[in-house]
Amino acid sequence: GDGSDLELQKQQWCRTQDALKGRLVLEDDFEWSLPSVSSNSDQSDARGKLKYIGGFDISFLKEDPSTACAAVVVLDADTLEIVHEEFDVVRMQVPYIPGFLAFREAPILLGLLEKLKINAQHFYPQLLMVDGNGLLHPRGFGLACHLGVLADLPTIGVGKNVG
Length: 163
Prior knowledge:
Layout lengths: L1 H20 L10 E2 L14 E2 L2 E9 L6 E10 L5 E10 L9 H19 L7 E4 L12 H9 L3 E3 L6
Helix pairs in contact: 2-3
GO molecular function: RNA endonuclease activity producing 5'-phosphomonoesters, hydrolytic mechanism; single-stranded RNA binding
Keywords: Cytoplasm, Endonuclease, Hydrolase, Nuclease
Organism: Aegilops tauschii subsp. strangulata (Goatgrass)
């Protein structure tokens, strides 16, 4: 029945999370730097500056929770001005199961990132922020980790709760 199908699905998702977790980068190895606040600010970093930050979220219709609006908003890291936005109204294909949010939301967010690459590549973000947990997750691999690994971008998870 449905219960055993769900258990099989969860086992598959756990295997996928474990495989992706092996690709997780926890050290700072990006090609950009943040502006220094130290007094020796005339020392220039060989790396470029962080220019664009992409923020992701998905909002669900109260009347129909399987319909959602997914958004990415790109900010200029210096001015915090919005420089680009992409939205998609989507039908959710995967139910919400605690601990497995990434399998519901990551494909949609990655689709938005692809859309952004096509429509405004010059605003492509170097850093992502997403409404969801990263390492603070039952298996140490939440939506932020999942998205970051698949997008190959540093990603910060901003979770409302654990799980």
